[in-house]
Design brief:
heterotrimer, A alpha+beta (760), B alpha+beta (159), C alpha+beta (88), A: 760 residues, alpha+beta, Aldehyde Oxidoreductase, domain 3, Aldehyde Oxidoreductase, domain 4, 3 domains, 7-stranded mixed sheet, globular, B: 159 residues, Ubiquitin-like (UB roll), DNA polymerase, domain 1, 2 domains, 5-stranded mixed sheet, 5 strands, 16% strand
């Protein structure tokens, strides 16, 4: 059984001499997921399980004067109540969370507020009770006295003179120096290449514009959840949906001040993440409640809590200035970007700064980034964090420039495209990348070559995201029948078990079905960083490759002992070990497996890797749309996503990433936003009012997988999870302009916003 | 503690009795009382479709039905779709079409699709998209789901 | 000597110099020797002798994986970058 190949999904392959890599086997965990048998975090059950609920702030900014939990504790069925006072007191330190760093004090403060609440939805206390309804009743009995403070909701408000201050001890880091000025601006940094002032002097055409985006959410379907059991011997076991079980483990060790070896985290199946399930929220509260009660405690967030109390991606203000000579050579570009970090410092503006000009070879570039705290939930990663905000600005400015120059927008991009050897504005030099190949595939695509339907508009844009390397581990054990069991620690959000197993199968010369992959807990496999940063198929796949090489080497050595020949004379291909000189000497893996025990014992391969040679991935979109002038509603008529995958291990799931990222980008472009009222409360915290795309809102999403092999990976893999969410917002804005002559500089382009724009 | 009500139902063809509080939803009863966790909760207010089940031939979001309302009803959940170890053609089509990524929405989509194809064995793409508009998927962009439904319809008509 | 690119936020330490030539065969030596030329870099890049988690270092375009013991060649380029990851 293999998965289908559709003619509207094209793979432009450069390397096809693989047997397993590039094929489409059915995923190993598929049957459990189509029969309802797969266990997700909220499905976990344990003997004596208690249910936890969390009390959250109704105020955007307030001092906590007192917390009285006595009435809640007295309610029948309530087993324990915890607050920030139940956390141990330890010295502050900087923590590495696998995606960004945070201060231990800030992480504790976000999980349970201590002296101050900083956003509506900020957690304050946790209750464990015999059932969730009793726990909810108990929340209403907790009495808190607040002193409400004025709040700031946007970067403009937060950066204004005299703005209410979130953190009295936060001073702005101004170009690397502590300015000593107390402010909501945590940091201002710059990247400079060349001389932009000189570059703009040479420009014959200049475009300058400001763009704004608002807070949006990852929108995973399963809310955050976690079950904790703190046993009498001090061992803490967590079952939860997380993108990084080892991040949960290590963060809990710091938060709770207990040794890492005392914590075991079992990652359950995960109902979506997109970056939002890297940070931890409910797990430490469940742990504290379990410590008090001696029984397992499960906490599952509601949808409203997920919107208000997890980590969305920021609203932002982006100012772009770009100039070019009349033949389309960009002479200078400046990006000024301020992003909302939420309640604690750490917005994705640093990443945005490294992405905004990544596709282009600029002689003169300047990037200013501002990390700004506001009274909203602390932002978390969301698919290529920061890059879509930046692209919404720069990729629109480029189309405007192309129009002024009378150039095709793809030709303008190709004229300035970054290639191997291009020095980025943030400093390093690109190795082999596929930006040019993606743009060429866009220009040649039948969609771009076709006539537009009358009345519709067409737009293009491209976007960039990195791959990160980071640590991954993998074990492979050879079974007596020649099949293998593979264990790894990367949460499987979208079929990565299979793409990892396929890389081991390729090395061993066996089928993907003969590899049985399992995602295991933190006691069972070596340290593995988050499923994030487009790294899983790249880095954990690499660990599987190395572990399989280890198995292969041991198989050859074992066969050499059995035959009493020199191992150097043996080879292993297609799952058969044979002699290079004696055609009589042949043994299948199955035959070897059967005699392992009698010839010295089992064979287990293992690898822990931290790969370098990470490549980035570019994705381009071509979009056709029409606008209903009466209602302002935009209909996406045709959508094509073109992305460099390096080498697509499992093309169906690469297409799936491209289609899913496109759909999220379309939602971000057209409808999604946090509506905040004057009190700083989100007024649309349901999936009815926070309007994510449904099946009816979208057309089929055509894909082209471009393969510009990453020379740094054994199979040429580039991570493909993220770059695909970057181009939709500017591509759609460019199509709106093409259709109507209106340049939309504010997201989302909802019917109301379109009607407003058309009026003015 | 609230008084519990005795509810008699048929679930996936088998008689099932359970006790529930008046405030418990059918979703909560299925998952926490009966132990059928294949039906998922994404929003608890009827907007995501992850908890879709079939009651007496109609698909409903089980978070919006009270457990006590299920008295006398015949309920089909994701656990009842396959015939033993033989997967239903819709389940096969989802597997072969790579129509799931994280898989949390998949049970709801499969239950909803089965009801669609029983009503309309040869739906157009628009009819499929319209029918499935109450089931949110955040991973796939729906492309491969719609194709899997088309494939399942074809297979079921051929059978 | 290796060519070290100084990010603008650290150029106050080098009197505005964007590139500095530094001796050293690994990252630790580069940082120590840079600090000898322009005092303050150890403080900015290291925390109790370890690389700060907020900093990534790239040598010849690759984000390094061996930390302070990463080899640096005589004509290598060394960059200090903010650490980055992503969301999927």
């Amino acid at each position: 059984m293999t998965t289908k190949d559709y003619d509207r999904n094209v793979v432009l392959s450069t390397q096809n001499d693989f047997k397993v890599v590039g094929t489409r086997p059915v995923r190993h965990d598929g049957v459990d997921k189509v029969t309802g048998r797969a266990i997700y975090g909220a499905d976990y059950d344990a003997s004596g399980l208690l249910h936890g609920k969390i009390l959250r702030s109704p105020h955007a900014h307030a001092k906590i004067l007192s917390i009285d939990t006595s009435k809640a504790e007295a309610l029948d069925g309530v087993q324990a109540v915890v607050t920030a006072a139940d956390f141990p007191e330890t010295a502050d330190k900087t923590m590495e969370l696998g995606e960004d760093e945070t201060k231990l004090r800030d992480l504790r403060g976000n999980i349970l507020a201590k002296d101050k609440v900083l956003y509506v939805g900020h957690a304050i206390a946790g209750v464990a009770a015999s059932n969730p309804h009793v726990a909810e009743e108990a929340l209403s009995l907790i009495e808190i006295k607040y002193e409400v403070l004025p709040s700031v909701m946007t970067t403009d408000e937060a950066m204004a003179d005299g703005a209410p201050i979130l953190h009295e001890d936060q001073t702005t880091e101004e170009l690397g120096n502590d300015s000593g000025i107390v402010s909501n601006v945590a940091k201002h940094f710059q990247h400079i290449k060349g001389d932009v002032a000189e570059g703009f002097k040479q420009a014959e055409v200049i475009v300058e514009r400001e763009y704004n985006t608002v807070t949006v959410h990852q929108g995973y379907i399963a809310p955050h959840n976690g079950t904790a059991f703190w046993s009498a011997d001090g061992r803490l076991h967590i079952w939860c949906e997380t993108q990084g079980s080892f991040v949960v483990r290590d963060s809990l060790a710091d938060l709770l001040d207990i040794p890492v070896s005392m914590i075991r985290v079992t990652p359950t199946e995960i109902g979506g993440g997109f970056g939002g399930k890297i940070p931890i929220y409910v797990e430490p509260v469940a742990a504290l409640l379990s410590k008090k009660t001696g029984t397992p405690v499960k906490i599952v967030m509601s949808r409203k809590e997920t919107f208000e109390g997890s980590g969305p991606t920021p609203g932002s203000k982006i100012k772009i200035k770009v100039g070019a000579t009349s033949d389309g050579k960009i002479t200078a570009a400046h990006a000024w970007m301020a992003m909302e970090a939420g309640a604690y410092a750490g917005s994705p503006v640093g990443a945005a700064a490294q992405c905004v000009f990544a596709a282009y070879d600029l002689e003169n570039g300047l990037i200013d980034g501002f990390d700004v705290v506001v009274n909203k939930p602390k932002t978390a990663a969301y698919r290529a964090p920061g890059s879509p905000n930046a692209a919404f600005g720069f990729e629109q400015a480029l189309n405007e420039l192309a129009e002024k120059l009378g150039m095709d927008p793809i030709d303008l991009r190709l004229k300035n495209v970054a290639t191997e050897g291009t020095r980025r504005v943030d400093g390093p030099v690109f190795q082999r990348i596929g930006a040019k190949e993606v743009l060429e595939a866009m220009r040649e695509h039948p969609h771009y070559q076709s006539e537009k339907k009358s009345g519709s508009g067409r737009g293009v844009a491209i976007g960039f995201w990195f791959n990160i390397g980071f640590d991954s581990a993998c074990n492979i054990a050879l079974n007596k029948d020649g099949t293998v069991n593979l264990t790894e620690g990367s949460t499987d959000i979208g079929g990565s078990r299979t793409s990892i197993a396929m890389q081991a199968a390729e090395v061993l010369g066996i089928s993907a079905e003969d590899v049985r992959p399992s995602v295991v807990d933190t006691d069972t496999v070596g340290f593995t960083a988050v499923t994030g940063g487009s790294r899983t198929t790249f880095a954990t796949g690499w660990a599987a490759y190395e572990a399989a090489q280890d198995v292969k080497k041991q198989c050859i050595e074992r066969a050499a002992s059995i035959w009493d020949v020199n191992a150097e004379n043996l080879q292993m291909e297609d799952g058969v070990i044979s002699s290079k000189s004696d055609s009589e000497l042949k043994m299948t893996l199955k035959e070897l497996g059967a005699q392992l025990s009698d010839t010295g014992g089992g064979i287990t391969g293992r690898a822990s890797v931290k790969p370098r040679g990470v490549g980035g991935s570019f994705c381009g979109n071509i979009v056709d749309l029409s606008i209903d002038e009466e209602t302002g509603k935009i209909t996406i008529e045709r959508f094509t996503a073109i992305q460099d995958a390096g080498k697509a291990i499992h093309p169906s799931y690469v297409e799936g990433q491209m289609q899913g990222g496109s759909a999220q980008g379309i939602g971000w472009a057209l409808n999604e936003e946090y509506f905040m009222n004057d009190e700083g409360r989100m007024t649309n915290s349901s999936l009815l009012d926070y309007r994510m795309p449904t099946a009816l809102d979208l057309p089929m999403i055509d894909t082209v997988i471009v393969e510009v092999a990453n020379p740094g990976h054994p199979f040429g893999v580039r991570g493909v999870g993220e770059a695909n969410i970057v181009p939709p917002t500017p591509a759609i804005a460019n199509a709106v302009y093409d259709s109507s002559g209106n340049r939309i500089t504010q997201l989302p382009m909802s019917p109301v916003a379109i009607l407003e724009a058309f009026k003015s | 503690m609230t008084t519990k009500t005795h509810v008699q139902t048929t679930i996936n063809g088998e008689p099932v009795d359970f006790l529930c509080e008046p405030r418990q939803s059918l979703l909560e009863c299925l998952r926490d009382v009966i132990g059928l966790t294949g039906t998922k909760e994404g929003c608890n207010d009827g907007n995501c479709g992850a908890c879709t089940v079939n009651i007496d031939g109609r698909i409903v979001t089980s978070c919006l039905v009270l457990g006590v309302e299920a008295q006398g009803a015949s309920i089909e959940t994701i656990e009842g779709i396959a015939d033993g170890t033989n997967l239903h053609p819709i389940q096969l089509a989802f597997l072969e079409g790579a129509a799931l990524q994280c898989g949390i929405c998949t049970p709801g989509f499969i239950v909803a699709t089965k009801a669609l194809l029983e009503k309309n064995p040869d739906p157009t793409e628009h009819e499929i998209r319209f029918w499935l508009a109450n089931n949110l998927c955040r991973c796939t962009g729906y492309d491969k789901i719609v194709r899997a439904v088309q494939e399942a319809a074809k297979k079921m008509q051929e059978a | 000597m290796a060519l070290v690119f100084i990010p603008s936020q650290m150029q106050a330490l080098t009197n505005g110099q964007a590139r500095v030539e530094v001796e050293g065969t690994n990252v630790k030596q580069i940082i120590e020797n840079l600090d000898k030329l322009h005092s303050g870099f150890i403080n900015r890049l290291l925390d109790e002798g370890n690389l700060k988690p907020s900093i990534s270092i790239a040598v010849d375009g690759d984000i390094i994986t061996m930390g302070l013991i990463e080899k640096v060649h005589p004509n290598s380029e060394v960059h200090f970058l903010p650490a980055i990851s992503g969301g999927n």
